[in-house]
Prior knowledge:
single chain, two-stranded antiparallel sheet, 13% strand
Amino acid sequence: EQGDAEYFQSPSSREPGNRAYWVWPPALKTSAVPDAAPPRFWIASNPQRPPVPGWLGHLVNDGAACAGDDDVERYCAESLARSNARVVPLCVPLMGVVLSQDVGAGDEILTSYGYDAWLQRPLETSHSQSVDELLQKSASEYAGLTMMASQRYGDEFKKMANFVKTGDVDKAPAPSPKKKPRKSGFG
């Protein structure tokens, strides 16, 4: 769509906290995430899109903002505490918003974009123990909600995946050829 192309090519789409972020955790496998999927999913949404029922993920905000390297722990704690939803894989490439608690009419839907979105760099490989614990708690919630959605809506996810790949909800894509196991040694 022209509006999306203009938004994603504009300088404002690359500003910190612009709703372009990685989805946690790396390499989670469910029925919605095939083995051939990338190890992490990148989310980018255009907050200027008009609301369309069933397609409102672009309206989900972060519960906090991260101002810099010395703000990561506060950000992680506040964002996790305020979030009431997670963006989880439905079927590649579609993602969905899953609520982690009840919300009322008019309540804001909040998730955590991750400090990497605010600081515009990849996640660090090591953190302080307190930041690591907050990231693990967030990842556990994400994994639980992803598994719950996969179990509850697995058949619907498979139909969506079929439609994305073949254009028909009932027609599964042809199976991928299986790789032969590698022999060890010189044989």
